[in-house]
Amino acid sequence: LGGSISRALQQMSNATIIDEKVLNECLNEITRALLQADVQFKLVRDMTTNIKKIVNLDDLAAGHNKRRIIQQDFISLAVFNELCKILDPGKPSFTPKKGKPSVVMFVGLQGSGKTTTCTKYAYYHQKKGWKPALVCADTFRAGAFDQLKQNATKAKIPFYGSYTESDPVKIAVDGVDTFKKENCDLIIVDTSGRHKQEAALFEEMRQVAEATKPDLVIFVMDSSIGQAAFDQAQAFKQSVAVGAVIVTKMDGHAKGGGALSAVAATKSPVIFIGTGEHMDEFEVFDVKPFVSRLLGMGDWSGFMDKIHEVVPMDQQPELLQKLSEGHFTLRIMYEQFQNILKMGPIGQVFSMLPGFSAELMPKGREKESQAKIKRYMTMMDSMTNEELDSSNPKLMTDSRIMRIARGSGRQVHEVMEMMEEYKRLAKIWSKMKGLKIPKKGEMSAL
Ligand code: GDP
Ligand code: MG
């Protein structure tokens, strides 16, 4: 997917004139890619309509080069922003408060990952000092209680359920009452599902909700259900007041475009994603990295993991600190180049590094790319500390550029090319500004 969207945008930037035909071709390509990522057709269509409105073609036709370039960025930014907008229902979900009893009910089809996610959700809060508890109100699936019991025991979380009682409403109410008396502040009700969306299931959900009066109902969705996401989410929303979404199995092949459908259908935000079968494979949902991943613009969180692997631990806080402050200096670029050369098998790793992939490191031309990086580093070796530590490209006057070229035995145009590369990367990396820096070990502990 990422490939085809970047390709579409790339194609457009190669076109000398961006007219309606070029824009349409680009948007068609993006449409195809988003559909492949399971984004609902209607959402994609609305988005492209909006983008056409935003992009003023008359302006484009009249524009000179500079304006055209601004417009290209504008289009990719517009796609990005439109997708972010779809994922933002405009209001946050109900957030339970520590120390104050809240009831959270999980709904979703069988196999979507409810029981697993209930435990992950409980465990996540328990680690933050909450007193969670689990109630198994699934009397439909044989072994449902055993599964919850096993998960809960492993995580040392109190649980409630029954092997004999067949009324899910009664179990749910008894469980919630029991844990309210025990001063639990997060009472999680796991419910049953069915393979299909059927009336009996929705009626059961309605009754459990009516009896337990949950503060929050979370709809759990398997990311691999594809285009079915919208209808499924809507069906649940129509019987219970869904207030948040959790998308599971994001570790699989699915790009997760169904999440957009679920938000649109429930008018509720995605709050977490499941990224594996284990208890701690659970992440707070963040719109921008999710959309980046959907678009293949580079996965920031994956990228952060790579930084952890590649950059020696003791250097990280400083580098990350600098990046989060928005200071992408030539020295940082130099250090990154050093790391890249150290990294070994060039290739897929680069699809993770925003900006480093397509242009600097085209696939199949890794040798040339390495030579180029080494050339750049030679030129940077002829720079002064002042030049290396500045994040202001204006410092690079003609006389400095000539001096660097002479000092490194390279051509002036090569130094200029490197400075262009630096500016391009600096622009991309400026997105790191304001990034939350994970503390040492935080990432690997998860
Ligand atoms: P339920 O029927 O909705 O309660 O679903 P379960 O919690 O029983 O999960 C169904 C299957 O999906 C189980 O095998 C889980 O281990 C698996 N599962 C749940 N969440 C994830 C996830 O985020 N990633 C992966 N890979 N598997 C998951
Ligand atoms: Mg279950």
From TrEMBL:
Output the Gene3D superfamilies linked to this UniProt entry: P-loop containing nucleotide triphosphate hydrolases, Signal recognition particle SRP54, nucleotide-binding domain, Signal recognition particle, SRP54 subunit, M-domain
Q: Which reaction does this enzyme catalyse, per its entry?
A: GTP + H2O = GDP + phosphate + H(+)
Keyword Cytoplasm among record annotations: yes
Q: What region holds the SRP54-type proteins GTP-binding domain?
A: 269-282
The alphabetized UniProt keywords are: Cytoplasm, Endoplasmic reticulum, GTP-binding, Hydrolase, Nucleotide-binding, Ribonucleoprotein, RNA-binding, Signal recognition particle
The superkingdom of the source organism is Eukaryota
PROSITE patterns membership? SRP54
**Where is the protein found, in the record's own terms?**
Cytoplasm; Endoplasmic reticulum
Cite the record's note on assembly.
Component of a signal recognition particle (SRP) complex that consists of a 7SL RNA molecule of 300 nucleotides and six protein subunits: SRP72, SRP68, SRP54, SRP19, SRP14 and SRP9.
Q: What is known of its domains?
A: The M domain binds the 7SL RNA in presence of SRP19 and binds the signal sequence of presecretory proteins. The NG domain, also named G domain, is a special guanosine triphosphatase (GTPase) domain, which binds GTP and forms a guanosine 5'-triphosphate (GTP)-dependent complex with a homologous NG domain in the SRP receptor subunit SRPRA. The two NG domains undergo cooperative rearrangements upon their assembly, which culminate in the reciprocal activation of the GTPase activity of one another. SRP receptor compaction upon binding with cargo-loaded SRP and GTPase rearrangement drive SRP-mediated cotranslational protein translocation into the ER.
Family annotation (HAMAP family): SRP54 (MF_00306)
Similarity field = Belongs to the GTP-binding SRP family. SRP54 subfamily.
What's this chain's function? Component of the signal recognition particle (SRP) complex, a ribonucleoprotein complex that mediates the cotranslational targeting of secretory and membrane proteins to the endoplasmic reticulum (ER). As part of the SRP complex, associates with the SRP receptor (SR) component SRPRA to target secretory proteins to the endoplasmic reticulum membrane. Binds to the signal sequence of presecretory proteins when they emerge from the ribosomes. Displays basal GTPase activity, and stimulates reciprocal GTPase activation of the SR subunit SRPRA.
This chain's protein is named: Signal recognition particle 54 kDa protein
Organism expressing this protein natively? Datura stramonium
